[in-house]
Amino acid sequence: MRGKTLDLPRYPTGPLTRPTLVDITAPRPFAGWPLPAMEAAIGGWLSEAPPALELATLALDEIERRGNDALKTRMKFAHYGLEPVPWLSAAGDAVRATFPPEVLETQKEGALGANVYVVLRGGYTEANGFYGCYVGSTGKSVAARVKEHRAGGKRAARGLPRHGIEPLWSLFAAINPVPKKRAGREEWETRLHEALAPVVPKVTGDVAF
């Protein structure tokens, strides 16, 4: 059986900049936020097109970590026909464990200036957590590369023009920049892909080796 899928629309590209409200790469980005502020913000993020699922999910995770009743918040997701990203918190833990500061400071060789990135994509079944992610690397800005994916054509990865939602900054922002040379950036792309694969049910993108 295929199982239940989310019937998401083909969202417009939307803003592709790194969130500035919080330190998106921290283990608990919303640790300092009071509960009413998180609940109000989640409603706003879910109403956007595309929805800011990364921020909404991380805020929901914080509410649940505190032991607060999250039913009202989860009903907001249901109201918009959405689901939180079930693996996002675990994926962030996996990235931080794979790329601690000592790795980021000592294992990058050559001139830096390229980027790795992760794009949240829909189109998967409930058994696969509804969402997957695409891992890539680019010599361009993340925003420019994601726009190419969403626009379609030969520069787009399979599935992203229809199912791409947003960059998951919490899973890659701390890693950048990576080496400019193609082999160097593809090595870091592969390392990120392999860090996420045990946690995220569906990870797509190329691996160098």
Your description of this structure?
The protein has one domain (1-10, 18-209). The mean pLDDT is 92. The chain is built from eight helices and five strands. α4 packs across α8 (182-196). The protein starts with 34 loop residues before the first helix and ends in a 5-residue tail after the last strand. The chain is 38% helix and 12% strand. The protein has helices at 35-46, 53-65, 71-79, 88-98, 101-106, 142-151, 160-163, 182-196; strands spanning 112-121, 132-138, 164-167, 178-179, 203-204. Strands 1, 2, 3, 4 and 5 form a five-stranded mixed β-sheet that branches. It has 209 residues and is an alpha+beta fold.
Q: Helix and strand string, N-terminal first? A: HHHHHEEHHEEHE
The tally of beta strands, per DSSP, is 5
Could you say how many structural domains there are in total? 1
Residue share in β-strands: 5-15%
Largest sheet: 5 strands, mixed
* Structural class assignment: alpha+beta
